[in-house]
Amino acid sequence: MAESPPRVTRDDLVQVEHALYSDMLDERRRANAKSADLLALDHLGQSSSEDVVCFSETVPGADVDAVLLALAELIADLDVSALKGATPTNPVTWATVSVGDEQRRVPSYATVELPESVAGFPLLLRTWPVKGQLAQYLQIFARRDDEIEAEKFLPALVADARSGRSPYRMRVVESTAGRAGLGLRVVPTPTETREGLVFPDPVWQAVTRNVDRMFERMDRLVEAGLGGNRGLLLAGPPGTGKTALCRALAREYEGRATVVIVSAGVGSYLLGQLYERLNELAPALVLVEDLDLMVGDRETGVFPGLVEFLTVLDGLMTRHSGVVTIATTNDPDAIDDAVTRAARFDQVVPIPLPDEPARAAILHLYLARLEHAADVAALARASKGLTGADLREVVRAAVLDAEHDVLDHETLLATVRQRRPDDAPRVGLNRRDR
């Protein structure tokens, strides 16, 4: 009896399909590499690949936008014929990079024939995103005779993009944490101003001393060997205006310093990378919210970012200089004492609940552009225990509850009573109102 042929299973078919697909990809890669070699030989005027050298660089996520913007500037004046796709079968692929409110067009997948006028010798440059990562791959081909200088080209391009041409320098930047590590992006300028904030004099004196004068006299301190960094910790209950003060300073120092808003992920795991970058972006103002949630306390056994935070602020990990760090906390007692000693945070500034004159000033600010018949002094007396964020919500709620366009005193007083801590539970606050 003849043997029946072996049964072909689904797994067998999958393996064959995978092998064919892998062969196809390998062939495509070989074709692309061969095409790049041929383009390089043609552009560089060489007859053999032995006369050509190749260098490459992988740009990490935090530098991708800066490097792509530098490339866009590099090729801005080139003839369109100098730009080709990353492979001969594909066109140039462009991306956009946000710089504040501005969108700029940058090459994402491209091959560029750089003439001798750009680097002093001809180059063929290729770039494409690294698959599955927030990173960009750069590759250049040059004549072997130009090998020594060509080897410096990509590191110099990246270094220049990270410092002098960086899109982040002297702007308001948010730091992010992702699979590829540290990320940076320019964000719109905050709208808060000092004029719209009400704090007791000691708070403003601390800001003047630790922020304004620090930036003014930073060079003198560095020259005298007294250090170019400073830390300020704002401590107070939620809603007392800590975040608003940070945002007002961000607005004020944009253009004078690089302002970096630290996200929770970066604060817990990537502070070392961030402060390392600040060596190229200084002078810098770093804003860290909710420090107590980030660093914790040794006695509780919960301190996810404590060790890194301490070594970063000491400069042991980064040797950074020219950085003023402002952090906020709702619970200073939850922070390890080692975080707040000199050379880490030089001054802890209490942000108290507003007293009666401060509450009156805050109410005047929020009512300034509304028609009203309020007795502000009476409202300030009645609102003992309320924060600035509470008073903002008092006015907002009154606008929603009022029967007429002109806010009457009784409606405002009713909303005050609804939010007083002795009359009703406190309503949760948004982070931005702290």
Question: What is the CA–CA distance across the termini?
Answer: 86 Å
Structural class: alpha/beta
Shape: elongated
> What is the helix tally?
14
Number of DSSP strand runs: 15
What is shown here, in short?
By secondary structure, this protein is of the alpha/beta class. The protein contains 14 helices and 15 strands.
Description:
The protein has 434 residues and is α/β, with parallel strands linked by helices. The chain contains 14 helices and 15 strands. It has helices at 10-44, 61-75, 116-119, 147-162, 201-223, 242-253, 264-269, 271-281, 291-295, 306-314, 356-367, 376-382, 388-401, 409-419, and strands at residues 52-59, 83-84, 93-99, 102-114, 123-129, 136-143, 172-178, 181-186, 229-235, 258-262, 284-288, 323-329, 347-350, 372-373, 407-408. It has a seven-stranded mixed β-sheet, sandwiched between helices. Strands 1, 2, 3, 4, 5 and 6 form a six-stranded antiparallel β-sheet that branches. A hairpin with a 2-residue loop joins strand 3 (93-99) and strand 4 (102-114). The longest helix has 35 residues, at 10-44. The chain is elongated and about 90 Å long. The protein starts with 9 loop residues before the first helix and ends in a 15-residue tail after the last helix.
